[in-house]
Amino acid sequence: MPRLPDPADLEALRAFDTPTICNALELVLPARRAIGFTRRPLIAAFPRLRPVVAFARTAVIRAREPHPRGRDEAKQVRLGYYEHIAAQPLPSIAVIQDIDAPDTGFGAFWGEVQTHVHKGLGCAGVVTDGSVRDLEAMAADFLVLAGSIMPSHAHVHLVDYGGTVSVAGMAVSPNDVIHADRHGAVVIPPEALKEIPAAVALIARREKVVIDASKAPGFSVDRLRQAFEEVEDIH
Fold first, then answer.
1. Which of 15, 71, 97, 179 has the fewest CB atoms below 10 angstroms from its CB?
2. Helix H or strand E encompassing 114
3. Does a structural domain hold residue 14?
4. Helix 196-215 and helix 221-232: axis angle, to 10°?
């Protein structure tokens, strides 16, 4: 089994928003500049929550048609999914793909009950292209990024869990490290974890030169050109 990230490294990344993490990954792993993040808008149900850094647990759902399983089999699938959510390492984050295209989000898997159950099992939030409901009754401090808000759960059920999924253009496998906030989510490769804080600091130093110049009296294109030259000397 691959070595698990240091919890302190994960907690340190909560100090940054997800766009900043994406910027840092462009420096640390340039080949991932155009992959690994959500590329379609998701609704942040609670935009004031701090960023979440957690280990992905994946599932596939649909809601338009009734599930084909018998009662006992459906129960076992659901319990197996919850075991998947609660397994080490924690905290987990649910990444759930809705396959009811073109009616993605037809029925909500997420609401009062699911957020409380997931939080109790060590899950910090959900990223889904499906729908959510019961916003006022959801568990506190539970990050929710969803494709839509709908009133009914219709026939929503688990199709499968524990495989690779794609949500809003982001491909995710179980135990991938996910950073998520009101802007969206991104997968952080293990080899990049320890390098991100230094990359963030470097970017901040470079950006400060340009921002400070833009705020100074007499700012002009010539001053901007000079600022860009100064940035190139910051390493």
1. 71
2. helix 112-120
3. no
4. 160
- Distance between CA atoms of 204 and 199, rounded to whole angstroms? 9
Q: Is 193 left (phi over 0), alpha (psi -120 to 50) or beta?
A: alpha
In this prediction the pTM is 0.94
213 belongs to a structural domain: yes
Strand ranges for the chain from DSSP E: 43-44, 52-62, 92-98, 108-110, 123-128, 131-132, 143-146, 148-149, 157-161, 165-167, 170-172, 177-181, 184-188
4-19: b or e for each residue (b if 16 or more CB lie within 10 Å)? ebeeebbebbeebebe
Rg (CA), the chain: 20
Q: Is residue 1 part of a domain?
A: no
Domain housing 221: 197-232
The token duo for 148 is 């839509």
Determine, yes or no, domain membership for 50. yes
Residue-wise pLDDT tens digits, 48-92: 999 999 999 999 999 999 988 888 999 999 999 999 999 999 999
